[in-house]
Every structure is written in structure tokens, then in C-alpha cells.
Amino acid sequence: MELGIVYALLGAAVAVLMAGAGSAIGVGVAGQAAAGVVTEDPGKFAKVLIMQLLPGTQGLYGLMIGFVTLTKIGLLGGTPANVSTAAGLLILAACLPIGLVGLISGIYQGKTSASSIGIVAKKPEQFAKAMLFPAMVETYAILALLISFLAVNAVAV
Amino acid sequence: MSKQDYTYAVARIRALETHLLNQDDINQLLATADEDDAVEWLLARGWGDGEEAKDGETILEYELDKTWDIVRELVDDMSTLDVLSYMDLSHDIKGAIKKVISDTVDPETYIHNSFYSDEDLLEIVRDEAWNRLPDFVADDVRKVYDAAVKTKDGQLIDILMDKLCLQKIASAGRISDHQVIKDYAERTVAVINIKIAVRAQRTGKSAEFMRMAMAECKTINLDLLIKAALTGGDAIIEYVEKTDYADGSEELKKSLSAFECWCDNKIIDLIKPQLRNSFSIGPIFAYIYARENEIRSVRNILMGKRSMLPIGDIRERVRKMYV
Description:
The complex is a heterodimer.
Chain A: H1 4-40, H2 45-53, H3 57-72, H4 85-122, H5 127-154
Helix pairs in contact in A: 1-2, 1-3, 1-4, 2-4, 3-4, 3-5, 4-5
Chain B: H1 7-17, H2 23-30, H3 35-44, H4 56-74, H5 86-102, H6 118-127, H7 135-151, H8 154-175, H9 179-203, H10 207-213, H11 222-231, H12 233-241, H13 249-254, H14 256-271, H15 282-306, H16 311-316
Helix pairs in contact in B: 4-15, 5-6, 5-7, 5-8, 7-8, 8-9, 9-11, 9-14, 11-12
């Protein structure tokens, strides 16, 4: 077996693990803030839940790239493709954007969501504006997803 | 001990801040016809436990206790915030020492704080069980008590305990990792030093007396302040104009209570940025101060209504609100 498939699989793992970790931390931070608000005002549950979920998307993006990668190298179909070392390394590099950006943006989106939950706690009518702040962080996760998706698909196996 | 994550606590404080009284609420409270009307207004706002607390003072005590109970739930290491109750603790210890050495009973002097009940404090002083006091004051309180037993001088107890309190606040500020607590401690000690100087000047106290009562801080030069106090009231104002508290000199010219009000308002200005902080102990510290400030203002309004003072006079005693 070529070493390439190992690198490609490592790429899938990086995408899923790092982006997933970013989301887990982000959702955790936002969840703490959400719990604080709901303790005092259970009526705001729905609004703060949406805020809490925002940093969860990076994990989904990482999962998506992981899935695309596994499909690409044939692991999902049960017949692994013959991936050269160079192609494997290219796939690993292609997975890095969503892995790294997913981790960092997940953490910071969580912090921004926690701060926005503070806005919702005091001014629930400003929910839409409060949503925009964490949503801005999402932009960079989407850009990384796009590049990872295009790059993984562009590698010839 | 690992550093506490305040995300949950701050979010809960954000929700609680919506119940703080703002300036419009204070105006409504001021506009009530009398004390009973004002108490009704507070009850309608959800103050008090709705069951037992029906008179103003009980409601205020309940609200203060509730605030500290919530904060104790939220903060693992309360020593960071205890600086806010040093003045009450010092006042209560002072009262307990005086009661024990003069063998009198005066329950009205007790202020609720986060440390002890009045009975507990009396028991500690009576039994000289200083080890039951927090470590940072135990030894110093013992010395004050010994001096009190020897001299039976109530004023000396006041001076020693007040100075001890100021020193502890200053030291809490110095060792704190949080800028808001550092600034609060510095400002509190500095303005109390100025107030001591004004009172000492008016009553003709000596430099020695002032030195015994004042505590060192960074923004006030005690030698210059004492020298100014020995020269006269105008000299104190002149000195204050050269310090970080120059804005307050105009208020000082009016009256000491106007200056006190200015000082409290400046602390509110100092803590206001905590309304935009989401991840540190700052908003919790600010919330306690804001609640105490709010309760103090409501107390002044209720007392004013009870004494049937004109609204203008009551308003002068009302502090700036945090929200």
C-alpha cells in the first residue's frame, strides 16, 4: 500500500478533529453563557439556544470535508484507491484550511456568541443585530471550507 | 486553584442587570406620595420576598442578602470580592467591640455583610475568639480590642478600626489581578483620606490624629494633605485640585455630602465599562457595587419620604445609577 492514503486519511482526520474541537469549545463557551441567562430568565431559552448553536457549524464543515476526502480515496466504498504519496500530501494540505480555521473560528465564534447572549439577556428585541456579530466570524470558516472543498476535489487520485 | 471561567456568571449577571433601577425608575420612586407608596412601588417591582418583607428596611436587607447569595453561588473564590464588604465588616466589628466593652445593647448599629451575623460577631468579640475572624483581620482586630479594653475610648476604636479597614482595602487593591478592583480600592482609600482631612480640619484635630486615621495610597500624598488640613479648608480644596480628584473640588466647596455623592458617582463611572465585559470577574464586582449603591439610594429616598423632605433635598442624596 502506498503511503499516500495514510496522508489523505490524516487530512480527513485533521479536518474533522480540529474543526470539531473548535466547535465543541465554541458551543461550550456559548452554552455556559446561555445557561447563565436561562437561569434568570427561562423565557429567553429559544433565542440563546440559536446563539449557542452558531459555533457548531465548523464541526459540520470539517465533517463534510472529511466525508468528501474519504469518498475521494475510496475508503467509504470499501475499495481504497491507490493514492500516491504526492496526492496524499496534497489532500492533507487541502484539508488544513478547514481544520485550522475551523478550530480558531469555532473558539472565537463561541466567545462572540457568549457576548451576544449578553445583548439578548438585556435587550431581546436586538436579537437580529446580536446574531450578526458571531455570524461575521462564520465568514472565514466558510471561506476555508470552500478552499478545502475545491482543493480536495482538484487533487487527481 | 485554577482560574475560574466567568462566562456563565457574567451571562447571569447580564440577565440580573435588567432588574437594576435606572434613573427613570428613581424618578418614579421619588415621585411617590409617601414612604408607604414608595414601598408599594418597590414591591410592585419585585423587591422583597413578597411574604415577610413589607417594610422598607426589611425589603432592603432582603435585597442585599439576595445579591450576596447570588454572587456566592457564582464565584468560587469570594476573597476577590470581599473588599466590597470590608467597610461593613469593619463597622460591625467596631460596633461589637463597643457593645462588649461598654456592655450595652444597640441592635440598630449592625449592617448586614457577607461575613457574620450580629450575634456571631458579638460572640467572637465576647469570647475573644479572633481565630473565627478572617485571617487578614484577626490579629489586627485583637490589637484594637486590647487597646479598647485598656482605654475604653470609643473614638480610638473608631479610628483604629477605620484605618485598619482602609489598609485592608488598599492592600486588596494592590494584590488584586483585576484592574477594576485596583481602581476601586485606590479611589476609595483616597477619597476617605480627603474626607478625614476635611473633618479633622473642621474639628481642629492634630497632624498626629490625621496620620493615625489615614492610610497610604498612590494618588494622595498624605504629608501634603495633612499640611493642607492644618492650614485650612481652602488649602484642602487647593490640594485636591492638584490631584486626580480635581473634579470633586467644586463639590467639596459646596459640602462634604456633595463630595461624598461625587465620589460614589465617580466609582459608578469607573465600573460602567464592566457593562461591556463578558469574561471576567469585573461585571460581578460592578454588579455588587451597583446593587449596594442602588439600595443606598433607595434607603435615602425612603428616609427622605419618612421625614417628609422636599423631593429636591432627597434627590441630592441619590447616587448615579449603574444602568
